[in-house]
Design brief:
The chain is an alpha+beta fold and 343 residues long. About 22% of the residues have low confidence. 22% of the residues lie in helices and 28% in strands. It is flat. The protein is built from six helices and 16 strands. Keywords: Disulfide bond, Glycoprotein, Growth factor, Secreted, Signal. This is Growth/differentiation factor 5-like. Belongs to the TGF-beta family. It is found in: Secreted.
Length: 343
């Protein structure tokens, strides 16, 4: 009898032990799961992209995104600033720094190979000259590795107080790809300090034919009230200075810091003075606007003729183009108001 009770006691103890083990494992699973985490790094490395391609124009008035500026060698920036103040005869000048510079090559006397990434050919631009620049005494000899420069193509190098230029126009004009390599003998630092490929372009002059709409138009109707109103606020050119930093254009325009753009302000009253050069459309629209002045305001949908620029002039800029190349352009079109008119 005693052994029978002991047997059932052992069985009960075993069942309770199994139950406790089961409960313990069941409640411990959530704690293990909550303490376990998998972390995935989804961040992508941000490549070094020229700021000009990442620029966001500030249209909404909010602070623009601050992208890192593309850095240029001090020699390139210094020379281009000198060129900007000298006002060269070329319409567009681009300064390229070497994309790659090799180490000294012993079997050619320690010379280095300079590789330049060239801009794509533009049918609206003609390459006048291409020069490889170096500080005076730095570059002694230049040879193209991609194009055999003929003896008749070689010109004596140009030298001024600071810079020496080697003519490589034929090599650039006759290139087969988008890059060009030059073998340079002399003192060329591995960082490319002072080595500049200067490309000068001209653009064909645009002829603006005289439009038939620009002819004057005789009209005998004139009112004394209109003459008095014209004296108060006539359409004319007024001062306007543009500070590039105020509109975040200093992110890609290197020089100048600003310029006189002028603006057209005032009202256009009929009959128009000759200097406002009204078109026939502007005259008809102004006559309709005046004829419907006394009618129901809801039916008069003819707007008043506006005072707008009728002739614009270019200005000179030193800026970063879409590829990040430091570029001087003599005639950056449609930047300065020359004349105002009614349209």
């Amino acid at each position: 009898m005693f052994y029978q009770h002991q047997y059932w006691l052992l069985v009960l103890t075993g069942v309770l032990s199994l139950f406790c083990l089961w409960r313990t494992s069941l409640w411990s699973v959530p704690s293990v799961q909550t303490s376990t985490s998998i972390q995935l790094d989804l961040s992508l490395p941000s490549p070094s992209i020229p700021r000009i391609t990442q620029r966001v124009f500030n249209i909404s008035g909010k602070k623009p995104i601050n992208f890192p500026k593309k850095r240029h060698s001090s020699a390139t920036s210094r020379y281009m600033l000198e060129l900007y103040h000298r006002r060269p005869s070329a319409d567009i000048v681009r300064a390229l720094s070497p994309r790659h510079i090799s180490g000294p090559i012993d079997h050619i006397g320690g010379g280095r190979v300079l590789e330049f990434q060239l801009p794509p050919k533009n049918p609206s631009e003609y390459l006048e000259t291409a020069e490889l620049l170096g500080t005076a005494g730095m570059i002694l000899r230049v040879e193209s590795l991609d194009y055999l420069i003929q003896p008749e193509d070689k010109r004596p190098s140009r030298r001024d107080e600071t810079w020496r230029a080697f003519d490589v126009t034929s090599a650039v004009r006759n290139r087969k790809g988008d890059s060009l390599k030059f073998l340079v003998r002399g003192r060329v630092r591995s960082g490319g300090e002072g080595a500049i490929l200067l490309l000068s372009y001209t653009k064909p002059k645009k002829r603006t034919p005289r439009s038939a709409e620009d002819d004057g138009s005789d009209d005998n109707s004139a009112a004394a009230a209109d003459a008095r109103r014209r004296k108060k606020n006539p359409c004319r050119k007024r001062p306007l200075y543009v500070d590039f930093s105020a509109i975040n254009y200093d992110e890609w325009i290197v020089a100048p810091p600003g310029y006189d753009a002028y603006q057209c302000m005032g009202r256009c009253f009929f009959p128009f003075p000759d200097h406002l050069s009204p078109t026939k459309h502007a005259i008809v629209q102004s006559l309709l606007h005046g004829a419907l002045q006394g009618s129901d305001p809801g039916k008069n949908t003819i707007g008043r003729v506006c005072c707008v620029p009728t002739r614009l002039a270019p200005t000179s800029l030193l800026y970063l183009d879409a590829s990040g190349t430091l570029t001087y352009q003599y005639g950056y079109e449609d930047m300065v108001v020359v004349e105002c008119g009614c349209r």
